[in-house]
Write a structure and sequence with these properties.
The chain has 2 domains: 159 residues, 3-Layer(aba) Sandwich (Rossmann fold), CATH 3.40.50.720; 98 residues, ProC C-terminal domain-like (ProC C-terminal domain-like fold, Orthogonal Bundle), CATH 1.10.3730.10. It is 53% helix and 14% strand. With 273 residues, the protein is an alpha/beta fold.
């Protein structure tokens, strides 16, 4: 984006995926992005990818217009203490920090345009699902941030109270989907394919299934009905999976992650307190 500089504070997996997505979507160049991390080994790795990388959060903030905080919840308090004197009214804050509310961000860093986002690691290939809520933002700020993430997948503006649910379904959800794919691939090996062939078939099949829902907006059961015939092999396999608790296990897994998030919220970071 012309004349804009961006700092990603936190060079972990999500922060790095985000930075890679900004490059892949051709919105920024390597010279426009600074990524910070406190680990020398991670800084070396980020530099090897072509990024500007540093352990100095204050310097990164002072050189940037858009600040993306992408650290663990327990690191939020120390990060905000470090950068708050370097922020000014021209900065836009974006936070991927799980469980940290707009109220806490404002309490720690002042009244600045702020966005909470919950993307997933598919950012780096521009296929993320990114949920967004905003606070103290003008229409111009909202348009800028939405454009930023729409070029890295799909976006959905949601009320802040749904950010926890978005974390579980959208961010944790990519791991849940990948675990299902692993199981499918292992099953393919069991019935005759080698691992490379099985993984390819599963990956393309799951991609096609997802694209059917995205493109048609049909309920999954409507598409399932198209491939299940009376006394057929598909319905037999589906029924056995359900007998073994497939849907129940997925739903219980989501609820378990959500409850863990709620517990995290109650005992967290104590930012600026």
């Amino acid at each position: 984006m012309k004349n804009l500089k961006l700092a990603v504070l936190g060079g972990g997996n999500l922060g790095t995926s985000l930075a890679k997505g900004l490059i892949a979507s051709k919105q920024f160049s390597f010279r426009d992005i600074i990524i910070t991390d406190k680990r020398d080994s991670r800084i070396d790795y980020l530099k090897s990818l072509g990024f500007q990388a540093t352990g100095d959060n204050r310097n990164a903030v002072s050189k940037s217009n858009i600040i993306i905080m992408s650290v663990k919840p327990q690191q939020f308090g120390s990060l905000t203490q470090e950068i708050k004197q370097s922020l000014n009214s021209g900065h836009i804050l974006i936070s991927t920090v799980t469980g940290v509310t707009h109220k806490e961000i404002e309490s720690s860093l002042g009244k600045l345009p702020a966005f909470r986002i919950m993307p997933n690691t598919a950012l780096e290939i521009c296929e993320s699902m990114t949920c967004i809520s905003f606070h103290n933002a003008t229409a111009g700020h909202e348009k800028l941030v939405l454009n930023l993430f729409e070029k890295m997948g799909k976006t959905l503006v949601i009320p802040e109270e749904l950010m926890g649910a978005a974390t579980v379904v959208g961010a944790c959800g990519i791991a849940f989907a990948l675990r299902f794919m692993r199981a499918m691939s292992q099953g393919g090996i069991e019935i005759g394919f080698n691992s490379e062939m099985s993984q390819l078939i599963v990956a393309q099949t799951v991609k096609g299934a997802a694209q059917l829902i995205v493109e048609t907006s049909n309920h999954p059961e409507r598409e399932i009905d198209k491939v299940t015939t009376p006394q057929g092999i598909t319905i037999s396999g589906l029924n056995e999976m359900e007998h073994q608790g497939l849907s129940s296990a997925v739903i219980r897994g989501l609820i378990t992650s959500y409850n863990k998030l709620e517990n995290l919220d109650t005992g967290k970071h104590k930012a600026g307190k």
